[in-house]
Amino acid sequence: MRTGEKLRYMVTAFAVSFLFPLPLLPYLLMDNGLMIGLARLACSLLTVPGVLALCVILPLVCGWLLAARAHFPPTFAAKFLPLLLPPCIYLFLLGRHLRVLPTTFADLADGVRFLLLPQYGLFFLAFLVRNRKRESTRERRRGLACLLLTAAACCAAVGVDLYAVRRVTFFDDAQRMRPYSLDDFTGIVLPAGPPSLCLAQNQPLLDGTLAALPLYAAASWAVDGERLTAAERRERRMPPLVECNGLHGWERLTAGEITFFFGPPPSMRQLDELRARGLTPDVRPLAREALVFFVRKDDPVTGLTSEQLRRIYTGEITNWQDVGGRDERIFPFQYEEGDENQFLLEQLVLRGEAPTTPLQEESRLDPCDSGPVRRVAAYRNRPGALGFGLRSYLDKWFPNGDVRPLAVDGVPPTDETLRDGSYPLSLPLCMASCRPLSAESRAFRDWLLGPEGRDLIRRAGYLPWDGGNDSGSDDTKERKDTKENAQ
């Protein structure tokens, strides 16, 4: 066989087979909006017959015609490798791509299963069926054996690479970091014994941040007058008289829609706005909380300074080596705008500075399904990851102890450092009201501040406040904590 014919076949076979993994190409260039836009436009213009022709008929025809008209090289490698290289190249590039971008492994599997294998498989099947008529049985068997061995080696090499990506970088299902929910009553506990207070009617309406939800939901259930177990409540689908609107709960307190708001202490601006309306804010600390940063438990970094955290989350520091760790990229995971953890990062660590652009991920891989939706990436416990959240969340997020909390400014976030205030990112969870209380609401407040309430707070997973709040206080006692922790 002449060299020109051999080269012509190899180029043609490589070019034709390279077309069928083409739908995966936009996901190798996820940051290229033009590529994704063109893919979406092409999919939107195709009809059902058009999709059938492209995905089924075209691969079969191309494989058949290539086997029928090409002048095959005499060697197996020159004949089949041009057909095996394109899918291997695509898979290799996808593996490299996923090491950098936090895209879910499930998306990769869906892309290979629905975009690469069907079209390329039909193309290759048609090639083999038509080729069998052009070779003797002996040559066909020998070629098929070599083909299977080569394909197995390629699959093994790609599989090892993808397994490494899966093992150290990705989860099949991203952890969305929402440990509590009113829908399934997760995290709500009951008191050790029957409470001394019973409010079957006229219970105060409660709202607050997600961080305080188990605390005030447990308190509402404890005093509602129906002595039911948690299992009985779930069976009867009885929700507590509470809501969870996060930062918007403070606005509802101001408008008089709720009686008590539970969460971090209000800022001086919020307190001044209440006074400007003629309202009297009453803020009582209930539990000690803290913003905690964490890494994988095998990470060599044990602590960071407040300045280092600020520089990491503003994008000034990007490598762990700059803060005493390994020579690897820092993946500083964040939360969606409006999340209370993100709010506390901006208030306690960044102090008014804008955070760097958070890591992004695609919610779906199919460009024909209204296009991929980008969102803030959920935390993944991979090498180089840095996460954060309220201290009470960690046991819910990582029950197996897969992460290690970091010391901040040399102080670890322990019960002792939260009690003495030495941990720099500690803050109280408070109970706030701003209008005259009914007798039932005052009784509820005093019960929660008393010994039974403190025991329930402890059972709900919090560190009770021990600053002498049993006798009550007004907002003036909280101005110092407010100024330091929430401005």
Please provide a written account of the structure:
The chain has 487 residues and is an alpha/beta fold. It folds into 3 domains: 166 residues, no CATH class; 136 residues, Periplasmic binding protein-like II (D-Maltodextrin-Binding Protein, domain 2); 131 residues, Periplasmic binding protein-like II (D-Maltodextrin-Binding Protein, domain 2), CATH 3.40.190. It contains 17 helices and 12 strands. The strands form 3 sheets. Strands 1, 2, 3, 5, 8, 9, 11 and 12 form an 8-stranded mixed sheet that branches. A two-stranded parallel sheet has the order 4-10. Strands 6-7 form a two-stranded antiparallel sheet. Helix 4 runs antiparallel to helix 5 and helix 4 runs parallel beside helix 6. It is elongated, with a radius of gyration of 31 Å. It starts with a helix and ends with a helix. The relative contact order is 0.12.
| Cα separation of the termini | 80 Å
**Beta content:** 5-15%
Number of domains: 3
Q: Biggest β-sheet, characterized?
A: 8 strands, mixed
Integer average pLDDT: 75
List the helices and strands in order.
HHHHHHEHHHEHEEHEHEEEHEEHEHHEH
Structural class: alpha/beta
Features:
single chain, 487 residues, alpha/beta, D-Maltodextrin-Binding Protein, domain 2, 3 domains, eight-stranded mixed beta sheet, two-stranded parallel ribbon, 17 helices, 46% helix, 11% strand, disordered C terminus
Could you provide a short overview of the structure?
With 487 residues, this protein is α/β, with parallel strands linked by helices. Helices cover 46% and strands 11% of the residues.
